[in-house]
Amino acid sequence: MLPGSRDTYVKNGWDNVDADGGRWLVNSIGRIVKPGHDWLIAVLSDHHVSQKDGVRVVEKAASYVLQEMRAATAHDAPAA
Fold first, then answer.
1. Which residues pair with 31 in a beta bridge?
2. 44 beta partners
3. Is residue 23 part of a domain?
4. Domain with 39 in it
5. pLDDT tens by residue, 9-26
6. Which residues contact 13 (CB under 8 A, 6 or more apart)?
7. Is residue 55 part of a domain?
8. Domain for residue 68, yes or no?
9. Helix, strand, coil in percent for the chain, rounding step 5
10. Who contacts 18 (Cβ-Cβ below 8 Å, separation ≥6)?
11. Number of domains in the chain
12. Is 57 within the bounds of a domain?
């Protein structure tokens, strides 16, 4: 990978579940690769009233985790 480059990969999935009264499962897995860091975040969720509500929860959780991971590694030196 070139210095300063960044790659992002995301796979989302969702479905409503008859056995759960038609409520929604919403899942996402993502990978962020940049110099010095290769992060993988997975959020699995269920029991949402709507797909839109599930997506909102998953996006909020993923954003929070990424923010915390960045803060926890802010003083790490990039890999050469």
1. 9, 40
2. 27
3. yes
4. 7-72
5. 999 999 999 999 999 999
6. 25, 26, 27, 28
7. yes
8. yes
9. 30, 45, 25
10. none
11. 1
12. yes
